[in-house]
Amino acid sequence: MGQAITSPLQRLRCKLREKGLANTVATLPVCHFPDKSVLRQKAKRVPRIDSSIQRLIDNMVETMQQANGVGLAAPQVGVPLRVIVLQMPGEEPIAIINPKIVKHAGEQEVTEGCLSIPGYFGEIKRSALVTVKGLDRQGKAIKIKATGLMAETLEHEIDHLNGILYIDHIESQDKLHKIEPLDRTKQVR
Predict the structure, then answer these.
(1) Could you tell me how many helices (H) and strands (E) the chain has, helices first?
(2) Over the range 94-124, which residues count as b (16 or more CB within 10 Å of their CB) and which as e?
(3) Please, which residues bridge with residue 96 across strands?
Protein backbone atom coordinates (compact mmCIF):
# COMPACT_ATOMS: atom_id res chain seq x y z
CA MET A 1 0.00 0.00 0.00
CA GLY A 2 1.16 3.54 -0.79
CA GLN A 3 1.14 6.53 1.48
CA ALA A 4 -2.02 8.59 1.77
CA ILE A 5 -1.93 11.80 -0.24
CA THR A 6 -2.82 14.57 2.15
CA SER A 7 -1.39 17.91 1.10
CA PRO A 8 -2.48 20.01 -1.88
CA LEU A 9 1.06 19.93 -3.24
CA GLN A 10 1.18 16.14 -3.00
CA ARG A 11 -2.08 15.95 -4.96
CA LEU A 12 -0.69 18.37 -7.56
CA ARG A 13 2.53 16.34 -7.88
CA CYS A 14 0.49 13.14 -8.38
CA LYS A 15 -1.65 14.76 -11.07
CA LEU A 16 1.44 16.03 -12.88
CA ARG A 17 3.16 12.62 -12.63
CA GLU A 18 0.04 10.89 -14.00
CA LYS A 19 0.11 13.22 -17.00
CA GLY A 20 3.87 12.75 -17.49
CA LEU A 21 4.53 16.38 -16.52
CA ALA A 22 6.30 15.92 -13.18
CA ASN A 23 9.46 17.74 -14.28
CA THR A 24 8.02 20.12 -16.85
CA VAL A 25 6.18 23.40 -16.73
CA ALA A 26 2.43 22.97 -17.04
CA THR A 27 -0.62 25.15 -17.33
CA LEU A 28 -2.79 24.48 -14.30
CA PRO A 29 -6.60 24.54 -14.23
CA VAL A 30 -7.92 27.77 -12.70
CA CYS A 31 -10.63 27.45 -10.04
CA HIS A 32 -13.77 29.42 -10.85
CA PHE A 33 -16.10 31.07 -8.37
CA PRO A 34 -18.39 29.82 -6.90
CA ASP A 35 -17.31 26.25 -7.69
CA LYS A 36 -14.25 25.97 -5.48
CA SER A 37 -14.34 26.62 -1.74
CA VAL A 38 -10.53 27.00 -1.77
CA LEU A 39 -11.13 30.52 -3.13
CA ARG A 40 -12.85 31.42 0.16
CA GLN A 41 -10.29 29.83 2.50
CA LYS A 42 -7.36 31.58 4.13
CA ALA A 43 -4.20 30.13 2.59
CA LYS A 44 -1.48 28.58 4.76
CA ARG A 45 2.04 29.95 5.14
CA VAL A 46 4.74 28.15 3.17
CA PRO A 47 7.00 26.61 5.84
CA ARG A 48 9.84 25.61 3.50
CA ILE A 49 10.74 26.55 -0.05
CA ASP A 50 11.60 23.29 -1.83
CA SER A 51 11.44 21.92 -5.35
CA SER A 52 7.64 21.49 -5.16
CA ILE A 53 7.24 25.21 -4.40
CA GLN A 54 9.62 26.07 -7.26
CA ARG A 55 7.57 23.90 -9.63
CA LEU A 56 4.33 25.44 -8.34
CA ILE A 57 5.74 28.93 -9.06
CA ASP A 58 6.84 27.92 -12.58
CA ASN A 59 3.43 26.39 -13.31
CA MET A 60 1.62 29.43 -11.90
CA VAL A 61 3.67 31.78 -14.11
CA GLU A 62 2.90 29.63 -17.16
CA THR A 63 -0.81 29.55 -16.26
CA MET A 64 -0.92 33.33 -15.72
CA GLN A 65 0.85 34.03 -19.01
CA GLN A 66 -1.34 31.62 -21.00
CA ALA A 67 -4.43 33.35 -19.59
CA ASN A 68 -3.08 36.86 -20.35
CA GLY A 69 -3.18 37.74 -16.64
CA VAL A 70 -0.94 40.04 -14.63
CA GLY A 71 -1.20 38.10 -11.38
CA LEU A 72 -2.19 34.74 -9.94
CA ALA A 73 -2.49 33.38 -6.40
CA ALA A 74 -1.97 29.72 -5.48
CA PRO A 75 -5.57 29.26 -4.26
CA GLN A 76 -6.74 30.12 -7.78
CA VAL A 77 -5.12 26.89 -8.97
CA GLY A 78 -6.46 24.88 -6.02
CA VAL A 79 -3.37 25.12 -3.79
CA PRO A 80 -4.15 26.79 -0.44
CA LEU A 81 -0.65 28.20 0.12
CA ARG A 82 0.55 31.81 0.43
CA VAL A 83 2.24 32.12 -2.97
CA ILE A 84 1.56 34.75 -5.64
CA VAL A 85 3.07 35.51 -9.02
CA LEU A 86 2.87 38.80 -10.91
CA GLN A 87 4.02 40.09 -14.26
CA MET A 88 3.58 43.71 -15.20
CA PRO A 89 3.45 44.50 -18.93
CA GLY A 90 6.95 44.49 -20.42
CA GLU A 91 8.58 43.12 -17.24
CA GLU A 92 9.80 39.76 -16.00
CA PRO A 93 7.51 37.72 -13.73
CA ILE A 94 8.11 37.76 -9.98
CA ALA A 95 7.01 35.39 -7.25
CA ILE A 96 6.34 36.31 -3.64
CA ILE A 97 6.04 33.67 -0.95
CA ASN A 98 4.19 34.49 2.28
CA PRO A 99 3.47 38.08 1.16
CA LYS A 100 2.07 40.57 3.64
CA ILE A 101 0.94 44.15 3.11
CA VAL A 102 2.78 46.15 5.75
CA LYS A 103 1.70 49.62 4.62
CA HIS A 104 -0.94 51.11 2.36
CA ALA A 105 -1.96 54.67 1.61
CA GLY A 106 -4.27 56.69 -0.60
CA GLU A 107 -7.01 55.40 -2.80
CA GLN A 108 -7.50 54.75 -6.49
CA GLU A 109 -10.59 53.70 -8.40
CA VAL A 110 -9.82 50.75 -10.63
CA THR A 111 -11.54 48.37 -13.00
CA GLU A 112 -10.65 44.77 -12.16
CA GLY A 113 -11.24 41.36 -13.57
CA CYS A 114 -10.19 37.99 -12.24
CA LEU A 115 -9.22 34.68 -13.82
CA SER A 116 -11.42 32.98 -11.21
CA ILE A 117 -14.47 35.07 -12.17
CA PRO A 118 -14.38 34.92 -15.97
CA GLY A 119 -16.70 37.05 -18.03
CA TYR A 120 -17.00 39.94 -15.57
CA PHE A 121 -15.17 43.05 -14.42
CA GLY A 122 -15.94 45.44 -11.61
CA GLU A 123 -15.25 48.97 -10.50
CA ILE A 124 -13.71 49.06 -7.01
CA LYS A 125 -11.36 51.09 -4.81
CA ARG A 126 -7.82 49.98 -4.05
CA SER A 127 -4.90 51.57 -2.24
CA ALA A 128 -2.82 53.98 -4.33
CA LEU A 129 0.41 52.83 -2.61
CA VAL A 130 1.24 49.51 -0.98
CA THR A 131 4.36 48.14 0.66
CA VAL A 132 4.61 44.35 0.71
CA LYS A 133 7.12 42.13 2.50
CA GLY A 134 7.67 38.47 1.73
CA LEU A 135 10.21 36.02 0.36
CA ASP A 136 11.42 35.62 -3.20
CA ARG A 137 11.64 32.15 -4.73
CA GLN A 138 15.13 31.65 -3.29
CA GLY A 139 13.87 32.42 0.23
CA LYS A 140 15.46 35.86 0.42
CA ALA A 141 13.46 38.55 2.25
CA ILE A 142 12.08 41.19 -0.11
CA LYS A 143 10.19 44.45 0.27
CA ILE A 144 8.24 45.98 -2.61
CA LYS A 145 6.81 49.49 -2.69
CA ALA A 146 4.27 49.83 -5.47
CA THR A 147 1.80 52.23 -7.03
CA GLY A 148 -0.65 52.00 -9.92
CA LEU A 149 -1.25 48.61 -11.53
CA MET A 150 1.43 46.90 -9.42
CA ALA A 151 -0.19 48.11 -6.15
CA GLU A 152 -3.61 47.04 -7.40
CA THR A 153 -2.35 43.60 -8.43
CA LEU A 154 -0.51 43.02 -5.15
CA GLU A 155 -3.66 43.85 -3.17
CA HIS A 156 -5.81 41.70 -5.47
CA GLU A 157 -3.55 38.63 -5.18
CA ILE A 158 -3.01 38.98 -1.43
CA ASP A 159 -6.79 39.25 -1.04
CA HIS A 160 -7.00 35.82 -2.71
CA LEU A 161 -4.67 34.44 -0.03
CA ASN A 162 -7.16 35.65 2.58
CA GLY A 163 -10.23 34.20 0.83
CA ILE A 164 -11.35 37.60 -0.48
CA LEU A 165 -12.45 38.20 -4.08
CA TYR A 166 -12.62 41.55 -5.85
CA ILE A 167 -16.42 41.24 -5.98
CA ASP A 168 -16.40 41.56 -2.18
CA HIS A 169 -15.18 45.16 -2.64
CA ILE A 170 -17.93 46.17 -5.08
CA GLU A 171 -20.11 48.84 -3.48
CA SER A 172 -23.20 48.31 -5.64
CA GLN A 173 -24.45 45.85 -8.24
CA ASP A 174 -24.23 48.45 -11.01
CA LYS A 175 -20.42 48.43 -10.57
CA LEU A 176 -20.20 44.80 -11.77
CA HIS A 177 -20.25 44.40 -15.55
CA LYS A 178 -20.49 41.42 -17.86
CA ILE A 179 -17.84 41.29 -20.57
CA GLU A 180 -19.24 41.00 -24.04
CA PRO A 181 -17.88 37.90 -25.82
CA LEU A 182 -15.66 39.89 -28.22
CA ASP A 183 -14.13 42.13 -25.49
CA ARG A 184 -11.16 39.96 -24.40
CA THR A 185 -8.54 42.71 -24.45
CA LYS A 186 -8.61 43.53 -20.73
CA GLN A 187 -5.85 41.99 -18.67
CA VAL A 188 -7.06 40.16 -15.60
CA ARG A 189 -5.51 39.28 -12.27
Answers:
(1) 3, 8
(2) bbbbbbebeebeeeeebebbbbbbeebbbbb
(3) 84
CATH of the domain at 76: 3.90.45.10
Q: Express each pLDDT in 131-157 by its tens digit.
A: 999 999 999 999 999 999 999 999 999
pLDDT digits (tens, 9 = 90+) for 14-42: 665 565 555 567 899 999 998 767 999 99
Domain count for the chain, please give it: 1
Provide the annotated active-site residues: 157
Yes or no: say if 26 and 98 are a contact pair by the CB < 8 Å rule: no
Residue 189 belongs to a domain: no
CB 174 within 8 A of CB 150: no
> Nearest Cα to 63, choosing from 98, 93, 22, 108?
93
CA angle, residues 93, 66, 56, in degrees to nearest 5: 60
Whether 171 is covered by a domain: the verdict is yes
Residue 120 covered by a domain:
yes
- Which range marks the domain in which residue 31 is found? 8-178
Question: CA 72, CA 53: separation in Å to the nearest integer?
Answer: 14
